[in-house]
């Protein structure tokens, strides 16, 4: 099973492609196929940024043919200026999934933290540390595709969360 994990955003959209067996093989780590960030131009027009995100996610879907897209769902934001653009980015990401008939599972940050760390109020760094423990990233160059960014690590966590939860349509 191939899972495309997405951490939506307008400046950076994190993505991760992992492969795992639907029937879990004991002690088997999911294989990371690719991960990184889709970066848009800070000075770009909102419509152009959204178009670029849609095109890049569509290319990921075409290339990797995921069986499932897992996406971090929006939750309470303190700043309405932040939530609107992220919601728009999520919309074009969901459109790309629909364009290619890829089923989507959404996970809240609380669900991801509970799955990855066992504690819903875990810090982001705790989730990332567990993600890196559960996945072998030794063959990846972290100097490309914005792989050092939190958004890329978050997308790995989303994809891994989906693999641990199992597919629900």
Describe this structure in words.
- The chain has 169 residues and is of the alpha/beta class.
- 44% of the residues lie in helices and 19% in strands.
- It is built from 5 helices and 5 strands.
- The chain has helices at residues 46-64, 80-99, 109-117, 124-134, 150-165, and strands spanning 2-7, 12-19, 31-39, 68-72, 104-107.
- Strands 3-2-1-4-5 form a 5-stranded mixed β-sheet.
- Strand 4, helix 2 (80-99) and strand 5 form a beta-alpha-beta unit.
- Helix 1 (46-64) runs parallel beside helix 2, helix 3 crosses helix 5 and helix 4 crosses helix 5.
- The longest helix is centred in the middle third of the chain and has 20 residues, at 80-99.
- The chain is globular, with a radius of gyration of 15 Å.
- The two termini are 14 Å apart.
- The model has no long low-confidence stretch (mean pLDDT 90).
Write the element-wise H/E pattern from the N-terminal end onward.
EEEHEHEHHH
Describe the strand arrangement of the main beta sheet, using strand numbers: 3-2-1-4-5
Our measurement of the CA-to-CA distance between the termini, rounded to an integer number of angstroms, reads 14 Å
Helix content: 40-55%
Shape: globular
In this structure, how is the largest beta sheet organized? 5 strands, mixed
What keywords describe this structure?
alpha/beta; 169 residues; globular; 5 helices; five-stranded mixed beta sheet
Give the SSE map.
Elements: E1 2-7, E2 12-19, E3 31-39, H1 46-64, E4 68-72, H2 80-99, E5 104-107, H3 109-117, H4 124-134, H5 150-165
Parallel strand pairs: 1-4, 4-5
Antiparallel strand pairs: 1-2, 2-3
Helix pairs in contact: 1-2, 3-4, 3-5, 4-5
């Amino acid at each position: 099973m191939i899972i495309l994990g997405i951490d939506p955003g307008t400046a950076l959209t994190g993505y991760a492609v992992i492969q795992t067996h639907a029937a879990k093989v004991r002690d088997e780590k999911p294989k990371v196929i690719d991960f990184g960030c889709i970066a848009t131009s800070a000075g770009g027009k909102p419509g152009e940024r959204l178009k670029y995100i849609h095109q890049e996610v569509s290319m990921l879907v075409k290339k990797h043919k995921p069986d499932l897209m897992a996406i971090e769902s929006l939750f309470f934001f303190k700043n309405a200026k932040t939530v609107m653009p992220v919601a728009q980015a999520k919309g074009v990401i969901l459109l790309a999934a629909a364009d290619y008939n890829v089923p989507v599972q959404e996970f809240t940050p609380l669900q991801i933290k509970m799955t990855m760390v066992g504690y819903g109020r875990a810090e982001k760094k705790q989730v990332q540390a567990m993600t890196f423990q559960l996945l072998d990233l030794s063959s990846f160059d972290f100097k490309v595709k914005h792989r050092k960014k939190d958004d890329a690590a978050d997308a790995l966590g989303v994809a891994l969360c989906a693999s641990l939860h199992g597919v629900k349509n």
